[in-house]
Amino acid sequence: MHNQNSPLHVAIVILNWNGLHFLKQFLPEVLLYSKGAEVIVADNSSTDDSLLWIEENHPEVRIIRMTTNNGFAGGYNKALALVQADIYVLLNSDVLVTEGWINPIIELMRKDATVAACQPKMCSFSDRHLLEHAGGAGGFIDYLGYPFCRGRIYTTLEEDKGQYDDNREIFWATGACLFIRAEIFHQCNGFDEDFFAHMEEIDLCWRIHHLGLKIMIAPDSKVYHVGGGTLPKSNPRKTYLNFRNNILMIHKNLLPDEWIKVLIIRLLMDGLAGIKFLVTGHPADCWSVVKAHLYFYKNYYRRKLIRKKVQSEITYKTIPGIYQRSIVFDYYLSGKKYFTELKGSFSTNS
Hints:
alpha/beta, three-stranded mixed sheet
């Protein structure tokens, strides 16, 4: 266990796959504003000149080379097995960091050993006054497994007016800039590699909650995220991963009696989502929803064995940051577009 009075060794690990343009744009700021931290680029078998550029321009950056593209989940698992540190910072290559971005989070984690993971406030790189889609001011989830953020519910992005500038518990912290204790990452066996990419950080945070530990946001730390750096927003592959991984996640982390109730509702809601894709001219996305469910049923028994390894007796009604209503219903039918309109319906006082 780490001595609370000694400095924490921080390793910033940037997972790269053909991201030369992002590395050129954002790596210099990471190095400038991260004094005292080790900066590492873990490369998922890029075919561009990413590594050559790093070697020639930033020899102080450690490179971890992988021979295959293991996705976000597998890539980080393999890379972090080779990194010794107290705190890992999993940082997307398309994130602009700012002066002082590390200290508020490290201080929070140093003072409170029950904080296992934390994120900064995420704002949009292209519209800097807006909170950002992939993390906003902290991640939450509804009881059916649909994720959202403070400052971003579906397509509604809020302007950052300091309305969420409080250190507080959240349900999940964004994988685009995730501070996590190395000991806890490995205790949880890292990311679920079946996920490949999308929602693996939510699954990991859920498993951390099963340990009785906290996920936090420290908005005194602020970064800007480009987003959509690997897959564009409208993409059948992304649709497939999002629907598939979401079903895998809720099956894995909900208690058995909770899971059955949720599955019945999700079959209906995912079916409606597929029909909507079809009638709006996106047949490939509709097929992605079908394929996501087929994958789950085909792999049900294998996934059931994985589920047994992570189960606790902690119910979704007691984990901080779970919305006890349907965010889909409240957003689309009740017109609740902002996080502040959801007060009083969380598993704890959110």
